[in-house]
Task: structure prediction
Amino acid sequence: MKIDLHAHSNCSDGKESVEEVFRQAKLAGVDVLALTDHDTTHGWPLAAAAAKAEGIGFVPGIEITTRAHVTSPDGKLTKFGVHMLAYLPDPNHEELQTVLRDSVASREIRLRAIFEKIRADYDLDWSDVEMFLPDGATFGRPAVADAMVHRGHFDNRDAVFEELWPDGVDRYYVPNRGVPDTVESIRLIRRAGGVPIIAHPLSRGKGPEEGEPMPREHFEEMIAAGLGGFEIDHREVPPHAQKWLRELAAEFDLIVTGSSDYHGLTGKENRLGENTTSKEMLDRIIAQATGTSPQL
Ligand code: AMP
Ligand code: FE
Ligand code: FE
Ligand code: ZN
Result:
């Protein structure tokens, strides 16, 4: 059974409609797909219908943008973005929807700030960016990347990311500050009846290199707040991080998942079903959730 628990549509920064994503999932032999658009549940009703039409299962999810605040032993505070997957939360939970609405609003302001930085160096108009933001879609850098490709500055999204937003370079980057704290988001997802799983933890360029100390305290804090588990099998999680996370998951009896993080055939190289989650782990997610039900 092929279970893929992370995919995006054009309700956020995926290149395909919800219907097309589920059509592609069927073609890829996926039996159960979670739609996890960034900071929105707008695609869920479409996904329920599309999954039914294709005869495959659907797990409602969200990839929530959060910001971690971690104090190291020497007292230094570092902040960084963490993507938190929320499976099966109640889509009508008022506090959750308020946080998502604030995030989406802040994404818009922040994307305009990023656009202004880029416009200082490249020929680009906001209307170019808007072409790649369908009504209701959450704003993200991929729309700017698409606009840069459209204007002929680059060949594809990937090339734009490599040139404008290499890891650790802030020249064209503005963080999203209007998002929940990571630990708070875990508590919020649980209050909404959902199951919080960190998306692509310690992904390439963001976590410690092999041989460097791993952030155990930060993870213990998230686990104490109610973290459900980790998305370990994901192309952006390096092998040494996967090994460390697998051991941590075993120690605390947490859920481990695998997924594609599909963004459409032309959005990113990630292919539906390239990583999968076991039926046992999906069952554990469903057993912990009280917010809404999957459509299997
Ligand atoms: P943002 O949400 O604005 O910070 O943009 C982050 C999004 O950019 C991620 O969710 C990915 O979908 C996308 N992304 C990151 N790196 C790449 C890349 N190399 N090629 C294409 N899309 C990317
Ligand atoms: Fe994305
Ligand atoms: Fe992500
Ligand atoms: Zn994602």
